[in-house]
Design a protein that fits this description.
This protein has 279 residues and is an alpha+beta fold. The protein has helices at residues 11-20, 33-47, 61-64, 81-87, 90-100, 185-188, 237-240, 243-248, 251-256, 270-278; strands at residues 2-5, 24-28, 70-73, 105-114, 150-155, 167-168, 190-191, 199-202, 208-209, 219-227. Strands 1-2-8-5-10-4-3 form a 7-stranded mixed β-sheet, with helices on one face. Helix 1 crosses helix 5. The longest helix is centred in the N-terminal third of the chain and has 15 residues, at 33-47. The structure holds 2-oxoglutaric acid (AKG) and fe (ii) ion. Residues 124, 126, 208 line the site of fe (ii) ion. 2-oxoglutaric acid binds next to strand 9 and strand 10.
Length: 279
């Protein structure tokens, strides 16, 4: 995986690497120790007792009785100001404007915490491609020549081979399909290794998955899903956030919440029209 710093993170170079290269890059040192500690503290607090609803990519956890060792915390914008800072980091915003179009949005911001002993996930592609088990439910001719997703993992604990750093298959983003047995994903995958404060940025059409955590420490990351403006988001964040939050949101956060592109809209209210007509 090519590694960049906030200084060397040239958007054109990174966009080319995501589309035509490996499909994933690492940008180091984007977040201070204090920010990472704050984010981590909140996530641990929200996941210490019990995980919020886990909805996807649990590998064999259920069969192995290990469901409780992969925990999600959803709707992070509602859980601390630090997450709005993370979501709208200017270095990331610059790259994502080039990759997804200048009015890109955020479809989800959640944490994935793998406890020691936590199982990995099955290799997969991310939303909106994640139900590509049934390609016929998507439009004819759809391919990955342009991106409908960018994934950011903000690393909160050391991501090592042992702790379950995300695995990925370089170049697989160009295929737009799920891996099959013959792809031998686990034999040829690489790992997104990094330190707290680093960011792994990848095109979610690339095959990837969390790996088992065989270390003696937690392995947590903030996972952010970014989308072009016209892709329906995964989380309904505007509905899940308080009025106060919405009223004081920065222009960047308003864009990320999709408020600059508020469709569907009612352009002719049939019900009101009928009522008037009858009156
Ligand atoms: O936590 C990880 O390493 C990856 C998580 C992931 O890919 C997902 O949940 O979609
Ligand atoms: Fe994923």
């Amino acid at each position: 995986m090519k590694r960049f710093t906030s200084k060397s993170a040239d958007p054109d170079t990174i966009v080319d690497e995501l589309l035509n290269g490996e499909g994933a890059v690492l940008i180091s040192g984007l977040f201070s120790d204090a920010k990472i500690a704050e984010a981590r503290r909140i996530i641990m607090e929200h996941s210490d007792q019990v995980a919020e609803k886990v909805t996807h990519f649990q590998g064999n956890a259920e069969a192995d009785g290990k469901l409780n060792l992969q925990r999600r915390v959803w709707n992070l914008l509602a859980k601390g100001d630090v997450f709005a800072d993370m979501a709208a980091h200017p270095v990331m915003m610059n790259i994502l404007r080039k990759f997804l179009g200048s009015e890109f949005t955020m479809g989800s911001i959640a944490a994935n915490r793998l406890l020691p002993g936590g199982p990995g996930q099955e290799p997969h592609v991310d939303y909106p491609y994640w139900d590509f088990h049934s390609p016929e439910t998507h439009p004819a001719g759809l391919n990955s020549s342009f991106p409908m997703n960018a994934q950011v993992s903000i690393i909160l604990d050391p991501f090592t081979e042992e702790s379950g750093a995300t695995a990925y298959m370089p170049g697989s983003q160009r295929e737009l399909r799920y891996p099959v047995e013959e792809d031998r994903f686990f034999d040829s995958c690489q790992r997104m290794l990094g330190e707290p404060g680093d960011v792994a940025l990848f095109y979610g059409a690339a095959w990837h998955c969390a790996m088992p955590n065989n270390s003696d420490h937690d392995r947590s990351a903030v996972l952010i899903q970014y989308l072009p403006k016209w892709v329906k988001p995964l989380e309904d964040m505007p509905a899940a956030l308080s009025e106060d939050f919405m009223n004081s949101a920065s222009p960047e956060i308003r864009q990320l919440l999709g408020l600059n592109y508020p469709y569907p809209e009612i352009l002719d209210d049939a019900k009101a029209g009928n009522a008037e007509g009858r009156a």
